[in-house]
Structure formats: structure tokens, C-alpha cells
Amino acid sequence: MKKKMRVLWLSAIACNGNTHSFLNYPYMEQFLDDFEFIYHPVIDSEYSLEDIVSKEITCDILLIEGAISKEFKRADVSVVDIIEKYSKIVQKIVTVGTCATFGGIFRESGYEETSGLHFDKEEPLKTHKDLLDKTISVSGCPVHPEVLVNTLYAIKKSAALKLDNFLRPKEFYAYTVHNGCTRNEYFEYKVDNHRFGELEGCMFYDHGCQAPFTHGSCNKILWNEVNSKTRAGVPCMGCTEPTFPRQNLFSTKKNMAIPENLPVGVGKRVYLTLAGISKAFKIDRLEKKLIDD
């Protein structure tokens, strides 16, 4: 009988969105052949939360969902104390979702000095520095289930994951959501979308699409193996980034008609040059499609 990796899923200040996203993983039966939860807030587990808090149960991976605050408790024990206890015995810690990684929407609510485990938005925290070498972050609101599961399998296989500055696996976060977007041709020729749900046109200039500066794999590893926000006609909201959620999600802030946030690595002068050249082209094939629709 093969040995399963033992996993503790600890819910901090969370909406359980990452839990529900994980439950959509299409190959759950295979996953549970290779991993077992000593505790999970939704899935049947061997131990109760009270057992986890009062004892020290052997496990290999600690998954943390939700934002962190010293004042927040589970089973009458500070969630920070639970993390510190199990961090000493696990091989790896994984922050699951944007709240656990950066603080997310709960940090923005102003709840009792809330943050991620290692970051307060973009800023590294001085606390838990001893856990940095053990931690992998998988941000997203919610996290893509395949990104989480593939990260766990990499840990199981002792694969050396290359991480970015926010401890995220580069395999999934080294490129932007814009990479792989089916609307890239519209972006290149500045053909804009004007209504949500339309399958044509780029949503960057008018609708606040953050795909050009959001690190993630949504347009490469499709949700439910079928779709993504931009494919469905909804702007990317930048949910993997430390600045999520921002205000006015569905509008593009501009200064003298120039978007305030430009694609990663593109300077303002370069953007203006490319935009000017692109506007000089009239691509009837693209423009006609929008008019016909």
C-alpha cells in the first residue's frame, strides 16, 4: 500500500472560496489516492479541529486558506499559534489564495491588523521569517484548483520549484494572464470592446482588464478545462496580485487618455508609439465583426 502525504488544511479569515474551488478539481478521486487530509473544514477527515488544536498530529503539508490575524481564533486558539505549532513539523507550508498570501479583501476591510502570512500587500513582513524557506504561495481569488494540486504533487515528488519574489511557482506565475488571451489580436490593433459578454474586442482600454499586468495561468490552464474570464467576455480583475481587490474594478483609469497601468515591462513612450502605429491600421476583418455583432 503506497504511502499518502498527510495534509492539514487550516482555514483562517476566509470565505471558503478556495475550498470550493478545490472541490471542482476534476480528478479528485486520484488526488485522494495520493494525499489524505488529517483535517479539512469541508471534506471528511480523520481528526476534528479540536484534535488538531489540542494535540500535535503528524502531517507533511500545512495549507493555509484565508488572511492572518493574531486576534483570529479557531477552536479558541489563535490561528497564528496553530500555524507556528505545525510549521515545526511539516515539510512545506502553502498559502492557498490571495488572502493567505497578501491579505486580500479581508486586509482591505481593516480587520485587526490583517495580512497574508509573509506579505502585507507587496510589503514583506518581519514576522514568520523562519518559515520563508518552507513556504510556497499560490495566489488567486479563488486559486485555480489545478495550480494548487500540481503544486502539491511537485512537493510530493520533491521537485525543485522555482519561485518568484512572492514565493509563487514560476511555472504558473512567470507570465501574465494576457499571455494566451484569445483577444490578443484586438489588443494589438486597439480594437476595443464596449459591452460585457461580447466575444470580440479588447477590454483593456475601456473595461479595466488587468490581464496585461496580472501574473497567472488562467488563459493557459482553463477553468473547468473550458473557460476563462476574458474568454467569457469579462475583464481580468487581477485576483492573483498583491493589490487585489482594487477600487473601480471595471473601469480603466487614464491620464490624458493614457492608461495609468501599462502592460508589464512596457514604458509609457513605447506604449504611445505602439498605440499610434496600431491605430494607423484599419483591419476590416476585425472591425466588421464588432459591427455585425
TrEMBL record:
One Pfam family from the record: NiFe_hyd_SSU_C
UniProt GO molecular function: 3 iron, 4 sulfur cluster binding; 4 iron, 4 sulfur cluster binding; electron transfer activity; ferredoxin hydrogenase activity; metal ion binding
Residues binding [4Fe-4S] cluster 1, per UniProt: 15, 99, 141
InterPro entries: Cytochrome-c3_hydrogenase_C (IPR027394), NADH_UbQ_OxRdtase-like_20kDa (IPR006137), NiFe-Hase_small_C_sf (IPR037148), NiFe_Hase_small_N_sf (IPR037024), NiFe_hydrogenase_ssu (IPR001821)
One Gene Ontology cellular component annotation held by this UniProt entry: [Ni-Fe] hydrogenase complex
Keywords per UniProt: 3Fe-4S, 4Fe-4S, Iron, Iron-sulfur, Metal-binding, Oxidoreductase, Signal
Residues given in the record as [4Fe-4S] cluster 2 binding sites: 178, 181, 202, 209
Listed name of the protein: Hydrogenase
